[in-house]
Amino acid sequence: MVDVGAAETELKDVAVRVAAEAADLVRRARDAMVAGEAVSVETKSTDTDVVTAADRAAEQLVRDRLAELRPGDHVLGEEAGGSAGDGVTWVVDPIDGTVNFLYGAPLFAVSLAAQVDGVSVAGAVVEPVSGRCWTAVRGQGAWLDGRRLAVSSPSRLELSLVGTGFAYQAERRARQARFVSGLLTRVRDVRRAGVASLDLCAVAAGWLDGYVEHGLNRWDWAAGALIAAEAGAVVHLPGADPALGEDATFAAAPSIAEALYDAAVECGVKDV
């Protein structure tokens, strides 16, 4: 692995700066939409998988700013693609929670992470409406607006609040529903916010005790998973654990991580 050393803090600062600029663009686009301005919407994998002009504009802003601040780095984004390369690769989700954005709901975020050899070393998740800024640097902890984050410590799984999400394909949704229905009998309750990066941040803050979701792309988890891990969560990334399925993301407070893992396996998480 390339050793970026002390430069990781600089990468975090760049992530915060650029993500905040993109978040401002997205906030202004939402304000205009809520005020009645028409928004351009297209679809991707299904009719319910949407992309807006604001998604594309925000990602282009990120790419342009990174080209100025970090020339030579690679960029992988949800809308314009790209690939990892030697050195630093920036992974961007310009609007995580586009459906929420489209409906005028305030829960969505700009997610930006710096990765080296596929591993996140610094990242930021910025919420355009609230202005909250979640950050982490590998080995240096996770923070929310200057407050250090730490995961929760529920005494047992039955008292745990767990987040999840659903795919856009109907067949997979049916499998996810079966999995969640089993999990519901073993935990306090289940939440579905529709913003993977913020679900992972919620684990970091102790607002959720755990989180399990299938089908996330790298831009969905690159920053949020680092923030959760640096706050003390047990994290399994897609492809890392066959027992969870080939594309599951898992994050949990250590006190219930093993129990949640076992419950997920028993509820058929691998088959989702």
Automatic annotation (TrEMBL):
Domain of life according to the entry: Bacteria
Top enzyme class: hydrolase
Coiled coil: none
Pfam families registered for this protein in UniProt: Inositol_P
Keywords from the named record: Hydrolase, Magnesium, Metal-binding
Enzyme Commission code: 3.1.3.25
Listed cofactors: Mg(2+)
CDD domains in alphabetical order: IMPase
Family matches, as InterPro entries: IMPase, Inositol_monoP_metal-BS, Inositol_monophosphatase-like, Inositol_monophosphatase_CS
Catalytic reaction(s) noted: a myo-inositol phosphate + H2O = myo-inositol + phosphate
Database matches in Gene3D superfamilies: 3.40.190.80, Fructose-1,6-Bisphosphatase, subunit A, domain 1
PANTHER family: INOSITOL MONOPHOSPHATASE, INOSITOL-1-MONOPHOSPHATASE-RELATED
Similarity comment: Belongs to the inositol monophosphatase superfamily.
Protein name: Inositol-1-monophosphatase
Taxonomic source organism: Amycolatopsis thermalba
